[in-house]
Amino acid sequence: MTPPRARHRPPMHPPPEFPPRQPKPFARMPPAVFPVILGLLGLGLALREVGDPLAGLAEIGLGAVAGLWVFSVLAYASKVVRRPAVLVEEMRVLPGRLGLATASVGGLALAAVIAPYAPGFGRGVLVAGLALQAGLALLAIRVLIALPPEARTVTPAFHLHFVGFIVGGLAAPGLGWPGLALVLLWATIPVAAVIWGVSLAQLITRVPPAPLRPLLAIHLAPASLFASVAALTGQALLAQVAVGLGAAILTALVVSGRWIIAAGVTPMWGAFTFSLAAFAGAMLRVGGGWKAPGLVLTVILLGAIPMIAWSVLRQWPGGKLAAKTNAVEA
Predict the structure, then answer these.
(1) What confidence score (pLDDT) does residue 274 get?
(2) What is the DSSP letter of 290?
(3) Residue 12 and residue 135: Cα distance in Å, rounded?
(4) 152 pLDDT exceeds 90?
(5) Is residue 115 part of a domain?
(6) What pLDDT band is residue 26 in, cutting at 50, 70 and 90?
(7) Distance (Å, rounded) from C-alpha 83 to C-alpha 74?
């Protein structure tokens, strides 16, 4: 005897919560805020090199942005404390790796901000920043090794993880450690050269997808920082060579500008902010014939970098930035 046909039952759903569950504060804090914060710090440091009449504006801006960096780091730290595994999960996606790398590099830039006011505190910040940078670089290596081969491709963001130590060289001379600046300079130049070479070979053989093309601007940052640190440590010839290399990279970026920004304004535009700020600061520190174009670029960036930063940061409170960049939830 055939059993009677079972009656179709609608799927069971849990009853709605009342009152509705509120998400925990900063549970999905996006690391994508850190690239533009680093860009603002770099702009402030470049303005500091201009001197009067922008000296006061530079210091006020640096103070405000330093506070924003500290707030953002504490917000992200609360997420990690709540669920430490988010750190590894975040590193598995490119926006997360980029954001965390710029967060630690921002700590090194913060040491340069503090140096003229509190050298002792600045030394502590610099040492802590270098330790954090090293820890994240090791974590990035561990995560990349575990990823599939196609996800381990060298990207311009590798500069931030493995060359970003050079930002400490901006602070070290002013903190009484010029020797440390030289060590950072000569240790990171070969690493940057390898990343440049591999990236150039990849660019020749395959075209990067449009949303990732703004990251090509990151190639400008190491050359700019090498020029700045060389100038601060009396390596005049190296400073000239490095700033010339930066000018060549910037020219290539400008010529390819329409192709690079084909995907429109995205959080990846944060790469433009800290890279261009680094180059403006480099031209001002090297001086001579580079000073006038450095002043022009700095004035342009006074409008451009805050606009890009605002376009990214305003998406943070509503969760839109977290969704766009695949931020992990704690």
Answers:
(1) 97
(2) G
(3) 47
(4) no
(5) yes
(6) confident
(7) 14
Question: How much is the CA Rg of the chain, to the nearest whole Å?
Answer: 22
- The answer to which of 8-22, 129-143, 195-209, 227-241 has the lowest mean pLDDT is 8-22
Q: Where are the alpha helices (DSSP H) in the chain?
A: 34-50, 55-82, 86-91, 94-114, 119-146, 158-162, 168-171, 178-205, 220-232, 236-255, 257-260, 270-286, 291-313, 320-324
Nearest to 214, CA basis, from 20, 32, 9 = 32
Whether the predicted pLDDT of 302 surpasses 90: yes
Q: Is residue 155 part of a domain?
A: yes
CA-to-CA distance for 270 and 34, rounded, in angstroms?
A: 8
Q: Report how far residue 265's alpha carbon sits from residue 308's, in angstroms, rounded to the nearest whole number.
A: 9
Give the whole-angstrom CA distance, residue 220 versus residue 70. 26
Assess if residue 4 is contained within a domain: no
> Residue 259's domain spans which residues?
31-312
CATH number at residue 67: 1.50.10.150
Render pLDDT for 78-97 as a digit per residue (tens, 0 to 9).
999 999 999 999 999 999 99
Q: Which residues, 6 or more positions from 283, have their beta carbon under 8 angstroms from its beta carbon?
A: 227, 243, 290, 291, 293, 294, 297
**250 lies in a domain?**
yes
pLDDT at 21 over 70: no
The CA–CA distances, whole Å, from 99 to 8, 36, 186, 231, 236 equal 49, 9, 26, 28, 33
Distances in Å between the Cα of 108 and the Cα atoms of 11, 134, 160, 165, 185 are 54, 12, 12, 8, 14
How much is the mean pLDDT over the chain?
92
Handedness of CA 283, 219, 62, 310 (dihedral sign): positive
pLDDT, mean of residues 260-287:
97
| Number of domains making up the chain | 1
pTM for the predicted model, two decimal places: 0.91
pLDDT digits (tens, 9 = 90+) for 252-262: 999 999 999 99
Q: What DSSP element (H or E) covers 292?
A: helix 291-313
* ∠ Cα 132 137 140 (to 5°): 125
